[in-house]
Known about the structure:
In chain A, 53% of the residues lie in helices and 0% in strands.
Amino acid sequence: MPEIQEDDDLVFHKICTLLDPLNHKGVKLTRDTDLIADLEVDSVSVLDIVMDIEDNYDISIPVNTISEIRTIGELVDAIHAIKKQQA
Amino acid sequence: MSLFDKFEKTATLYNQLSDAGQNPFTVQMDQMLGPTRAMVNGQEIVLAGTNNYLGLTFRSETVEAAKTAIAEQGTGTTGSRFANGTYAGHRQLERELADFLGLAYCVVFSTGYQANLGAISALAAPGKDVILIDADCHACIYDGCQLSGAETVRFRHNSPDDLDKRLSRLAGDGKGKLVCIEGMYSMFGDVAPVGEFVEVAHRHGAYIFVDEAHSFGCFGDNGRGVAERDEVMKDVDFYSGTFSKSLVSIGGFVASNHKELDYLRFSARPYMFTASPSPANVAAATAALKVIRRESGLQKRLWANAKRVHAAFTQLGLETCAPVSPVIAVKLPNKETAFAAWNFLIQNGVYVNLAIPPGTPNATSILRLSVSAAHTDEDLDIVISAYTAMAQAFAGAPEAAE
Lengths: 87, 402
C-alpha cells in the first residue's frame, strides 16, 4: 500500500514518468500540458496510462472521471481527490 | 470557432488514405456474387473480411424465409418493440435463441450494437453500480457504459487476475457490479478465458455479461460460443449476440436465466425508441439458426479453413496476433505499411479489413482477415497466394518509428 502523504509534486512526477514513452515529440511536460492536443496521445492510450496509475496508487479511477480531463494538472488533481476519497 | 475544427486531424488521416491509394474505408461492393465473392471496381474479389463466419448469406433456407416473410408481413414493422413493432416472429426467435442457448429468457433488439447498448445502459445505474470492462471491449460496450452513466473501470485485456484485483479494490462499496467481456475479440481473434472470468466475477458477487457476437456459431460443440467451450453457459448472467455475423441478418439479442431480463423491455432505451428488426431480418436469422443447429459440418469447415490460413501465414513468417481462430490478424510495422499492404491485397483480388490506431489495441496496425465456412479451396488459394506476394513485397519494409 503506497504512502498517502505523497505530495503533489510526486504524483506529477509519477505521471510524467508514465507519459514519457508516449512523448514522441519531446514536449516539455508541465501541469498545463494538454494530453491530446500537445502530446497527441490518443484517448485509448490515456485510458491505458490510467490503469497503470490505478495500480501504482491502488485506487479505482472510473473512466467517467477521465473523459473530462484535458491536462496533466487536471489528472494530478483528480488522483489526489480519489486518493483522499478512497483512503 | 467552427464545429468542424475537431475533425481536422482525423480528416487529414482519412484523406491521406484516399490520396495514397484506394481508401479501405470507402470500398463499395458493386455486385455480390456469393458469400465469398464480389465485384469491386470491375474486379472480382475474394471476400476475406466479412464476419460471414458460417457463410450462410446466400443459403436457400435463409433467402426463402426472408422472401416469404416480406410477402406475408411486409417490408418493415414501422414501430418499436415497445409499441407496434413486436410480431409473432420476434417472440418466436427469442424462444428459439433461448432454447438453443439453454437459457430461459431472451430479448431481441434491432442490431447487435443496440443489444449491448440497451442491456448495459439499463442494467447499471449512476451512483448505484460499477461496470468493469475488458480494456479491449467493443465500442458498443463502451457506449453502453457511457449511456448508463454508471462508474466504469477498465481491467487489463483477458486477465482474470487483473479483474480480481480491481474488484477487490471496490469491495465493500455497497454497489452492484457488472463485468463485461467478449467471447472472441473481433480485431485480433483472441479468445477470452470465459470460465475463469465467470469464477472471479461470481466470487466477488458480480454479474457477468459476455458478448459472443463473433464467437456465436463458431465455438463450443453446438456453436453456442466460448461460454459453451468453457462449460459455463448456465453461469453466464447475460449472454449477448448479434444476427449480423453467423446468423447472416441484422439484429441482436441478450439472453439470461434471470427472469428480470424482461425489465429491459421497459427500461432499455435502444429497445424502446427504435424500430424493431424487419420481418425479413427476423425470418433470415430464425432460418440461419435452424441451419446452424442442424449442420455441425459448418463449424468444422470453418475451423479447417482457419487452420489452413493460419498455418500458411505462419509459414510465410507473418506475425499473427493470436492462435488459430476464425479471425486471423497480421501485424504490420506501422500504419503506412499496413495501408500499402492492404492496397496490394485488393489489387491482387483479396478484400480484408485494415485496422489502425486508435481502432486497435496497443496502437498496432493490422490486416484483419475473417475466414468463412463458405470459402472454397480455390478462394483460399487466392488469399494465400496474394499474402505470399504481399509478404515478399513488404518483407524489407522499414520499421518506421510510430
